[in-house]
Amino acid sequence: MPTVTTDGTTLYYELAGDGDDQPTVVFVPDAASGPWLWGWQAPSLTGPYRTLVYAPRGTDGSDSAAPYTVDRFAADLEAVLAAADVRRVHLVGAGLGAMVALRYAREYGRARSLALFGAAASGDRVDGETLATLHPADPTRLRESLSLAFSDRFFAETGLIDRIVEWRREEDATGEARTGHLEAVRSFEAGPPYELTLPTLVCHGVDDPVVSLDSGKELAEDLPRGRFEPVEGKRFCFVEHATAVTDAIADFIDETAADDG
Q1: Which structural domain range is residue 95 located in?
Q2: Do residues 172 and 32 lie in contact, with contact meaning Cβ atoms separated by under 8 Å?
Q3: For the domain that residue 119 is a member of, what is the CATH number?
Q4: Is the CB of residue 96 less than 8 Å from the CB of residue 30?
């Protein structure tokens, strides 16, 4: 897997798909989550698009050096995209990844659209205690914590839940890296939303216990080209309803790419 070193920190990424003329979709995971989180969307979108999945600092083998701030995560993302020689991207971010996408769109010039899940315009709109419970310091609590991510029906599919627990054990941030990710969420401020003029799809689990549905609606309404789409489910609704969500992302990117010429 290719790597890039930035700010003394080595990050892993993977670019899949052929053709420089294809739209490139870049996936940014939630706080403390490894790239496993996009194991449904990225493979399904590879082919019609190029896809790039990477491991933010502190996850899945990437170095875990501080600082952990949204600004630093956005700079890391720029380093990854520069190393991959990707000039125009459609960013898909969840939670902290949505915050990173918002900051990236403000500071750098490669993004053409944003698709955000469980997003909030500031850290004070996030239930920090619930977010910490979803990403427990104690690895023996990983399975039970997923009740905050999935509906009871989905959670009952124990085979898949057990696999997700193993992916989390292998890839998610732990120790100081986990703490740094959570603190980055709490300290985030998006800045004036009217300055973010990219087409933005804001999707939100209707029962998300970490960021309220109203916070997602407000973000979409405040963005000049924001569009809000509720999704049944909780924090990881994009996993639970992967096919429908992937189709929605593809339609949105195609629409944006057509408008972009």
Answers
A1: 3-260
A2: yes
A3: 3.40.50.1820
A4: yes
